[in-house]
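Attaching the record inline, Q. Sequence:
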Amino acid sequence: MPSPASTSHTVLHPAGWPRPKGYAYGVVAEGRLVCLSGIIGWDTAGRLADGFVPQVRQALGNIVALLREVAAGPADIVRMTWFLLDRSEYVHAQAEIGHVYREVMGRHFPCMSVLQVAGLLEERARVEIEVTAVIR
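Structure, as predicted:
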């Protein structure tokens, strides 16, 4: 469900391109830019969730909480970048991640990139997410 501050945006999808799974190829939006970075799966006490999928769930919940600070929500997100330690961990949990994503973020699928990295600053973190949102 769109937030009250939701900006209209246009998803870019050239004719004949295959439909992306769980993300958009491109988005055009106009409004105030909100940038979130370093979002990992820890709670308000700084405790990391145990396991990859629980960390994804908590990180997504942290994104929603941060967006609420500016009267925004998941529908305002135009870009996400996920940094993973283990590509195979992500691939094997894709169905569960998809379920968790829809549960926390709804059926909003912005531009998304997923990168495997050699390490994250927080030693026990399995995933870190950056977000760009655009609000009115």
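The chain has one domain: 9-135. The longest strand covers residues 127-135.

More tomorrow.
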